[in-house]
Amino acid sequence: MDRVELSKKKIKEISGEAGFSAIEPENDYSMALQDDPDLYGIATRFIFGEIYYRDQLNEKQRELITLVVLTTTQNLPHLKMHVAVALNIGLTPIEVKEAVYQCAPYVGFPKTFEAINQVNKVLKKKKISLPLESQQQVPENNRYDMGLKTQTSLFGDAIDKMYGSTPGNQKHINNYLSAYCFGDFYTRGGLDLKTRELLTLCILAALGGCENQLKGHVRANFGAGNSKEVIIAAVTQCLPYIGFPRTLNALSCVNEIIPENTV
Which of 102, 157, 188, 223 has the greatest number of CB atoms lying within 10 Å of its CB? Predict the structure, then answer.
């Protein structure tokens, strides 16, 4: 089966027999098919005829990664369609929302709210009652301690070194990182720690210019149990949405932290 047939097969698998137009009528792909068929063909053959057939990731992982990358890049029409795809392949509304929530510490609240508004439009269209059940697991008075514990479980001694080397007038940023990023988000239910860490790596890859942080999260992913093959597969899934420069930069970070001869 060639790329053309593979892409048609995959699109039907994830969106249904009628294709993307059935789950989101005015999505980017359907509009491109009408007005720019050449670009549509290049995109769908590459994304759904090649990228989606690579090993190491399952369909749910692929869609979670796609959701966070589209949130990060603020491709909201595309995001809305992939929310529908995510639900169609069996991701729960909670899993979808938690993936988008995970973006907040890295892209900021305005972009996260813009994205979650698109998620909610799809959920409401599907008659899913909002708000969803809260996934908060840590009480307000314990968020710093639990966040620091989670942070240390991923980064080890690097956290003590970070706190020890930070000037006094900047230590509040470290405290925010532990309590907010890891206490408020990483400790939530809906997604396990291994998945959250893989999504964070993809968010940083999509942002670009975050190579120092990306290297740290390569180490954290490896420590969390994501193999180098899985990490590379996740970065590959980002490629159609973030382009080659950011993808190659991310792979360079992966190879620096986990050289080929170590796996």
Answer: 102
At 83-122, the pLDDT tens digits run 999 999 999 999 999 999 999 999 999 999 999 999 999 9
Sign of the C-alpha dihedral computed for residues 44, 201, 192 and 117 taken in this order: negative
**Structure tokens given for 128:** 């899913």
Distance CA 139, CA 59 (A): 33
CATH of the domain spanning 3-262, picked from 3.90.700.10, 1.10.10.10, 1.20.1290.10, 1.20.1250.20: 1.20.1290.10
CA distances from 106 to 60, 95, 125, 143, 177 (A): 22, 18, 29, 18, 11
d(CA 68, CA 98): 10
CA distance 88 to 22: 11
Q: For the segment 201-224, what is each residue's pLDDT rounded down to a tens digit? A: 999 999 999 999 999 999 999 999
Q: Give the total residue count for the chain.
A: 263
What are the DSSP calls for 30-52, one per residue?
HHHHHH-HHHHHHHHHHHHHTGG
Copy the structure tokens of residue 145: 């301690």
The whole-number pLDDT of residue 16 equals 83
Mean pLDDT, the chain, integer: 94
Instruction: Give CA–CA dist 102/262, Å, rounded.
Output: 30
